């Protein structure tokens, strides 16, 4: 793997984790939204990642790296943003404008504690990719110093 490939892998991780944090922030912001453009309560969104390389196992990766100097390790790819299909919460609030005839309001399927844990995880992933990128950059600088 070349230094630039390593930087590309870290950059793809940074982009993916940033998108994940954006979606989590959107979930938190809409935790109490009972009416959307579709007519129902807000439905929690989840980002789906996929590895972007062709190796199936570590030994496959080693064999492809040995055969080819320019391997195609591209990091992570965002497959899409999917809706969480879990059930909405029912809250008894007969005075709410969106309450049904029994007085229950359908609330979004967003759990703040879960979203905060996911935000911490995404933040740690982002920091890890920054550390990997800085380490790769320092390796390149040290390699340039060898020629002095």
What does this structure look like?
It is a single chain. The protein is of the alpha+beta class and 148 residues long. The chain has a domain at 3-31 and 45-83 and 112-146. It is built from three helices and four strands; from the N terminus they run αβαβββα. It has helices spanning 3-29, 58-67, 112-146; strands spanning 45-51, 76-83, 89-92, 104-107. It has a two-stranded antiparallel ribbon with strand order 1-2. The two termini are 24 Å apart.
Give the SSE layout.
Elements: H1 3-29, E1 45-51, H2 58-67, E2 76-83, E3 89-92, E4 104-107, H3 112-146
Helix pairs in contact: 1-3
Which series of helices and strands comes N to C? HEHEEEH
Number of strands: 4
Strand order of the largest sheet: 1-2
Q: So what's the overall shape?
A: elongated
Cα-to-Cα separation, first versus last residue: 24 Å
Strand content: 15-25%
- Quickly give the structural class: alpha+beta
């Amino acid at each position: 793997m070349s230094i630039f490939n390593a930087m590309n892998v870290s950059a793809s991780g940074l982009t993916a984790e940033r998108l994940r944090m954006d979606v989590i922030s959107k979930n938190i912001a809409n935790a109490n939204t009972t009416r959307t453009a579709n007519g129902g309560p807000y439905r929690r969104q989840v980002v789906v990642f996929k590895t972007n390389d062709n190796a199936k196992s570590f030994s496959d990766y080693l064999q492809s790296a040995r055969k080819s100097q320019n391997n195609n390790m591209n990091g992570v790819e965002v497959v899409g943003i999917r809706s969480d299909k879990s059930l909405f919460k029912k809250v008894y609030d007969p005075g709410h404008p969106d309450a049904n005839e029994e007085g229950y309001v359908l609330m979004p399927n967003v759990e703040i504690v879960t979203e905060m844990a996911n935000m911490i995880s995404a933040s740690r992933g982002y920091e890890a990719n920054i550390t990997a990128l800085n380490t790769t950059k320092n390796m390149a600088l040290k390699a340039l110093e060898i020629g002095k």
